[in-house]
Amino acid sequence: MNYGEGIFVGYRYYDKRDVTPLFPFGYGLSYTTFGYSGLKVAKKVKAGKMVEVSLTVTNTGKLAGKEVVQLYVSDLSSSLPRPPKELKGFAKVALEPGEAGTVAFTLDERALSFYDPHKKAWVARAGRIRSAGRELEPGYQGEGEVHAGIKQGK
Questions:
Q1: What are the residues facing 53 on neighbouring strands?
Q2: Using CA atoms, how far apart are residues 135 and 78, in angstroms rounded to an integer?
Q3: pTM for the whole thing?
């Protein structure tokens, strides 16, 4: 059996083809609404160091609810074909109406790496990455950019 789509399966395929599915990856129904703001990302990353990403989620509706925040990373300077964005973390937050909470993620070097079939190894190269949330509801999701100073993988 030939799987010719490579790494472009599921949401990665839709993102690459710029297709908006009726129910995107991670879609969930809620009785309330949420707003995202204040995305913070470390601007410089050194080899072997963690990347801290945080944002504020606010329950903008009239009922208590839970939201699953998804963190995606885009490699803006990859030497190989890569998905437009890859899921690197997710966290659930429960908020009362009008309440805001901070959601934080910690990404290690592996989360910023990709598999290079020519080297037969995971590689993290110096370059630019972008972290963002997938927009499940209309509104601002936020975006931040990191200029990674990660050296070649082993």
A1: 41, 105
A2: 24
A3: 0.76
